[in-house]
Amino acid sequence: MFQRRRETLHDHIFATYNQLRFGMFFLAALFPFVLWLPGLWIWGIELQPSLSAYYFASPADDPYAFPTRTFLVGLLFAIGSFLFLYKGFTKGENRALNVAGVSALLVAIFPPDREGSAAGFMAQLSVHGTAAIVLFLSLAFVAIHCADRTLQYLPSRHRHLKRSFRVFYRVVGMLMIVSPLAAFGFTWALGDRARIVFWIESFGIWVFSAYWLGKSYEMSLTHAEERALKGPSARPKENIDQPIVGGTLEPAGA
Hints:
This protein is mainly alpha-helical. It has one domain (14-248). Helices cover 65% and strands 2% of the residues. The protein is built from 8 helices and 2 strands; from the N terminus they run ααααααααββ. A hairpin with a 2-residue loop joins strand 1 and strand 2. Helix 2 runs antiparallel to helix 3 and helix 5 runs antiparallel to helix 6 (162-190). The chain starts with a helix and ends in a 5-residue tail after the last strand. The model is unreliable at 116-123 and 233-254 (pLDDT under 50).
């Protein structure tokens, strides 16, 4: 009976991690569309110059209503909460995810400059803009320096995928650095004269989404979380020199 309850608890914890990852994947994948399409179809709000511009986007017949703000803030709070609740496999990864989660909440709480993205260089260095950059840089750190820590637990039949996963994480990390910097540069140079910033920011969000989809697939192959839950006895023979320490996966000598 005790063993059955323990296995049920393991299943619940494992399912929680899966749902957090897939939740971030779906929320990020739909993020731009949830702002753009309802705003256009329901309130007649044209495509905005950036994602942040939806904070103060208003219908033509009611300039004091900001209906899409609810979607923007709600999505950021959901993603930020998921990032904070998701625990990494190393202390560095966990801290970076916590920083990313708090940054997403700050992006939601502190609005952009209401005068628009053309308000100037210093306006982009507000809490809103700075937190957005920190959010992406934190996730880039996770993708480049932390994501491949569980690749050592790939079963022998999937070892050929290790290089592919590593390249994927590196590319995703670099794109998450380039995207906010490119958006920052285009906003500073063009202001409200072009909507390219919306698509650059959307691309960055989709890269974030792709990371969690890829990570979910990798974890389904490594079963790293299940091994961490079951303790050292779950170590595969080929990884016996890489113990699970204190319920977390750590390589030997770490």
